[in-house]
Structure formats: structure tokens, C-alpha cells
Amino acid sequence: MEERVSNGCTTIERRSERELVATRTFDAPARLVFDAWTRPELFKLWWAPKSMPAPLLSCEMDVRTGGGYRLAFGRDAANAMAFFGKYLDVSPPSRLVWTNEESDDAAVTTVTFEENDGGTLLVLQELYPSKEARDEAFVGMEGATPEQFAQLDELLVALRAKA
Fold first, then answer.
1. What 8-state DSSP symbol labels residue 28?
2. What is the model's pTM?
3. pLDDT tens track for 30-42
4. Which residue of 74, 94, 111, 131 is 20 to 30 Å from 32, comparing CA positions?
5. CATH of domain 3-48+91-162
């Protein structure tokens, strides 16, 4: 059974037994949106929802096919929660695919950037190892992703103004 939620800008859906998909159109060219996902100095400005009690402490990214990433969230390094994995496909400015290796229930994430009339349709697809893992992740995605994407939207407006 497919379930879809939307806040008017970001849509999140359970597309299959193991798949979650989030979509949003940004008023920026694909190159700029891709940069915001692949340049650590930009990524750390929008990725952690401001409402989240644990800020992004560190952001290490080697964005190339075969490269890796590590993100740490928390109030201090001793109590940080880490997310990490490898980039399986980096195809600028149209596609990113990475693993999430912090748990056995983590997804493989694919993000596509499709430019149309100066805007970019972003599709984030996460494929989980089980329906249970997908259902558990849905709650987090439903709460965090719209806020993350709104923060990305604000950053893109600022970047476009500088260009």
C-alpha cells in the first residue's frame, strides 16, 4: 500500500515494500543544487534540521565514485552519532548514489537532479533491506526531510543572489 504525505513543497511516499521517495522542485539550476549536496561547506549549512536537538558536528565528504563520507551529530564529540558510507555513483550534476553503513537496516540512497526551465526536480529515493526498516525510517523522513529541503531552498536563494 502506497502512502504519500506532502507539505505543499516536499512530497514523501512509500513507493514499494522497501522504498521511500521524497521529491521537491527547487528554483535553481541542477549544477547549483548538486553543489549544495556535494560541497561540504554548503552541505553542512542545510542538512541538519534546525529543530533537531543534535547539531551537525562534522562533515567529511570525498564525493567521487568509490569515495566516502562521515557525518557526526550531537552536542559534543564524545556523545556524537555518526552516519557514514560510500559513494557508489557520482555523476555531476545529475545523480548521486551512496550507501548508509551505520546499521544493518540502513538504506542505499539515490538522488537525481533533473533540470527543467531553470529549476531542478530533486528525487531522493531510499531502498531499505526490509519493509520494517522502511516503515521505521518513514517517521524520521516525514519529520526531517521537509525541513531539510526548506533549509536547502533558503541556501539556494542566497547562492543565486551571489551569482
1. S
2. 0.92
3. 999 999 999 999 9
4. 74
5. 3.30.530.20
